[in-house]
Amino acid sequence: MSHATYELKAVARERVGKGSSRELRRNGLIPAVIYGDKQAPISISINTNEITKRIHAGGFLTTVAVIDVNGEKIRVLPKDYQLDVVRDFTMHVDFLRVSANSQVSVQVPVHFINEEKSAIKTGAVLNIVRHEVELHCPASDIPEAITVDLAGLKVGDSVHISAVKLPKGVTPVIADRDFTIATIVAPAGGMEEEAAEA
C-alpha cells in the first residue's frame, strides 16, 4: 500500500486567468486548483520544479500529498495534470481534497510475475489488455500496483479481474463484468509451425 506522502508549499492566488497563469510560469510557478470534500475550490501556485520532479518520479496520481497553503495544511490526491505538448512542460495540476475516510477512484498499474513459470517460457506471448486498472479504494490505502501471477498459465488462458487478489476495501470501478487483464497467446505463426514440424 502507498502510505508515502510528501509536502508541497503553495501560495493562494487572487488572480486567475491566462495572463496571470503566463506570469506565474515565467516566474517558475504553475497554477493549480484544490477542490472537493464539499468545500470551495482554492486556486494556488506551486513551484514548477517540485511538481515536475514528483510527476517524473512515478506514482504521482496514486500518492496522497499535503499542500501547505499559507500555513494551512490540506491533504490532497493529484487528480490530473496538463503538459505542454511541445516542450513536455507542466502547465496545470488539479488536486482533490481527501480526508481520512475519503474513497477515491484511481488508475493503478498492473505488474506481472512468474512469466518464467508459464507458457511464455516456451515462446508464448503475454498479450496485456490493461496496463492499468481503475480501482475504488480508501484515499489512505491506495495500492501502488496490483500483481498478476502468471504461474501455470498455458496458451489460450486469460487472466480476469476476479483472479486478482485485491487488498481489503479495494474494488474495481467496473463492477458489472469480469473483465480481462491479459491473455497468453501463441506467437504469430510460431508455435503452430514448430508443432507441425515435430
TrEMBL record:
Assigned keywords, A-Z: Ribonucleoprotein, Ribosomal protein, RNA-binding, rRNA-binding
Gene3D superfamilies on file: Ribosomal protein L25, beta domain (2.170.120.20), Ribosomal Protein L25, Chain P (2.40.240.10)
Gene Ontology CC entries for this record: ribosome
Domain Large ribosomal subunit protein bL25 beta: 104-187
Stretches assigned to the Large ribosomal subunit protein bL25 L25 domain: 8-95
Cited function: This is one of the proteins that binds to the 5S RNA in the ribosome where it forms part of the central protuberance.
Protein family: Belongs to the bacterial ribosomal protein bL25 family. CTC subfamily.
PANTHER family, per the entry: RIBOSOMAL PROTEIN L25/GLN-TRNA SYNTHETASE, ANTI-CODON-BINDING DOMAIN-CONTAINING PROTEIN (PTHR33284), RIBOSOMAL PROTEIN L25_GLN-TRNA SYNTHETASE, ANTI-CODON-BINDING DOMAIN-CONTAINING PROTEIN (PTHR33284:SF1)
Name under which the protein is recorded: Large ribosomal subunit protein bL25
Originating species: Rhizobium wuzhouense
Lineage: Bacteria, Pseudomonadati, Pseudomonadota, Alphaproteobacteria, Hyphomicrobiales
The encoding gene: rplY
